[in-house]
C-alpha cells in the first residue's frame, strides 16, 4: 500500500519554509546539519534547500509502527 506523502516530491523547500517545522524547528535543523544528521539537504552558498523526496524519505525512515 502506498503511503501518503507529507511533502510534495517535486518541490524544493527553503529552510525558512514553515512546513519544515513539522520535522523540527529551524534551530534544531541547523544543529542537525552541523552534526550531519537529519534529512539530506543542498547548499547554495549560504542558502539551504531541501528536496521534497529527501524530506519524505526522512519521514519514512523515522516512522515508528507500534507492535501488535
Q: Give the count of helical stretches.
A: 2
Give Rg in angstroms. 13 Å
**Beta-strand share of residues:** 15-25%
Q: Pick out the low-confidence regions.
A: none
Would you write up a description of this structure?
With 68 residues, this protein is α+β, with helices and mostly antiparallel strands. Helices cover 29% and strands 16% of the residues. The protein has two helices and three strands; from the N terminus they run E-H-E-E-H. The protein has helices at 26-35, 52-61, and strands spanning 12-14, 42-44, 47-51. Strands 1-3-2 form a three-stranded antiparallel beta sheet. A hairpin with a 2-residue loop joins strand 2 and strand 3. The model has no long low-confidence stretch (mean pLDDT 94).
Structural topology:
Layout: E1 12-14, H1 26-35, E2 42-44, E3 47-51, H2 52-61
Antiparallel strand pairs: 1-3, 2-3
Which tags fit this structure?
29% helix; single chain; 3 strands; alpha+beta; globular; 68 residues; 2 helices
Quick summary of this structure?
With 68 residues, the chain is α+β, with helices and mostly antiparallel strands. It contains two helices and three strands, in the order E-H-E-E-H.
Amino acid at each position: 500500500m502506498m503511503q501518503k506523502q507529507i511533502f510534495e516530491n517535486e518541490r524544493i523547500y527553503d529552510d525558512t519554509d514553515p512546513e519544515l517545522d513539522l520535522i523540527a524547528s529551524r534551530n534544531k535543523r541547523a544543529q542537525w546539519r552541523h552534526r550531519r544528521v537529519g534529512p539530506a539537504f543542498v547548499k547554495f552558498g549560504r542558502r539551504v534547500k531541501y528536496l521534497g523526496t529527501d524530506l519524505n524519505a526522512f519521514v519514512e525512515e523515522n516512522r515508528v509502527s507500534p507492535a501488535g
